[in-house]
Sequence to fold (662 residues):
Amino acid sequence: MTQRRTLLPWLLVPIGSMALSLVYFLLLMPVKAAPGELALFERGIGSPLLKVLNGYLGPFFGLRYLGNTACWALPGLMVLAMRWRQLEPWLRGTVLFLGLAVLIIGGAGGFNYRYALTLLPALLVLVFLLLERGMAGAGVPFSGRTVVHVLLVLATLANSWLSIELSQRMALEDPVDRARMEDDRPFYTKFDTGPKNLEQWFTSAGVERHDRVLVNNLPVYFYLTDRPGLYYWCGADQYFGPKGEEPIFRTRTDDAVVSYLADSLGTRYIFSDRNLSRYDPRFERFLESHCTLIAADDKGHTLHALKGTFGR
Amino acid sequence: MNGMLPPILVFVVSNLLFGAVLAAFLLRWAGVGALGPVATAMLGFGLAPFTISWVLNIALLVLPGQSHAMAIGSVLVAFTALASAAGTGWQGLLSVMRSAMAASVHRSLWPYLFFSAAILFGTALMITYKPLVDHDILEYGTQGKRFLRDMAIRYERHHYDASTGFYYVGLHGFSFPLLFTWEGLLRGLMNDQGDAWVRMQTPWTAWLTVSFIWAWVRRWDQWLAVWVAGAFTLTLGFLYLNTIYHVDPVRLFLFSASMALFIAVLRQPEPRILLLWGVVLGAHALTHSLGMILSPFMVLCFLISAQGTSAQRLRWSLVVVGPFLLAGGFHYVLDMTVGTGWLLKDITWF
Fold:
């Protein structure tokens, strides 16, 4: 009976993890981007609260990718910081560095789960070590401690299921991703999201070997072909040329963009994909109004030609 | 299967053989006190691709335009020297392998064996069905192919390739692009080309990362290692770490290793471990800018928190700075002074 009483408060840890996951995935995370906010939505920072949770505190609360255990490292680090004077030097250094690292990664790009993932193993070691020591100190027997640890791991699994479920709901709300979601081919056949036979695709679309193509953030063009290109990213309106970055659209009207592309940059073709093109509504509109779609594949890649630039 | 033979050969040489060389070298010269025998050996295997890219980086920087044979020869000379210097470390490596086999019968290692089998299965699926399609790695790959074509590394304001129009926007060290160069060099010897070996680095290093953490945490508690590894590998982030070709597993491995060595030197600042810590911090930096950003802070925390007098702590910290700069920090010194300017220019968030 006493043993059960000592265990009960510790069970609140995995229960808390699950409660947090339910609130996060079912209430906080939106499934559809607000108009013009696709980039913020994709990064999971589309509201002030999410900007704090997934952004600045991303290494703790980026539940979508990092699971629901690392969040306990925040109170863990705070408790350790409060006991600073009693800590051994190695633990002081570790707490100090982890605190600084969270500030740096959270401040500079916590929304990018890949950066936040950097600290995950260290934070998980901290959480499980503190829990183990805490429970052992409170007299919880080995079997009880194991129950808490196993429940935490199972809560991580449940969190991942909720995360996948969220991704599915988001995909169903997305006009581009919906088709991929509803495609019932085996999952492993969907790994290949790249264009097929790129060289042949361009040739059959009538693009000559020496024709220069404006490439919208698709490095696969440069990796798989030896064709000349112009590297561009519509999301930030940046063309990367011999002198670095310069805008194409920001300082020009659509008609002036056509002239600039054809006459100054020497290109009449734009290679993009539907997913990337929509990062800039103006670029997307430009493709519809001032270009002709000359090729598209089932993975969303598009090849446009500038209207009125042929036969000049 | 014939198509897979060349990349598998590259894997055997570059990851297993060269990894064993570095594992034996570390077991002899760094000892096992800081990380334990298994984690030390794992660190050696994880450092092998970095070491290849470091030698290539220096070779292509110092002697631009050299032949393929000379570049391959530089790497072989470096690993032959390390293998000779490993000496008794080879026996240590054999002993680590024997004890790891013996320990695998313990129940706490069964989940690890299951995890390893799952990674192997996932790797087979990935290599078969997923070509190089993810964004960042295609940029690394294109830059790596450019290094292979030019056989030169230049620090320049703009990494612009006039012949194709490709602009390398990456700001990180060249370690990862150079893996493509290495695969191109070795597969060129077999009249072959491709990127399957670089693609293998994603699951291989993800597996090494978990193995390293597992082995390191087992020193405290064998079951704690199971819970930590479980909570890490069951996240969606870890799934993506394995299924999106990227530099991330390598980055994560090197960061985790530098963190473990940081704790080791905080507890016992031995000179040889301080040197190793500096090398691993440098390796992390040569792989990714985040390594360059976090490493000075880690050294600063060591300077503040380590035991000993202020003068001792300062001396130990300086011991770390040398290998850190040599192993990877040099890239950023060059990039900031005669190159792109690194973070001193605007960053593009894709």
The beta strands of chain B are 160-161, 166-167. Chain B touches chain A through 70 residues (CB under 8 Å).
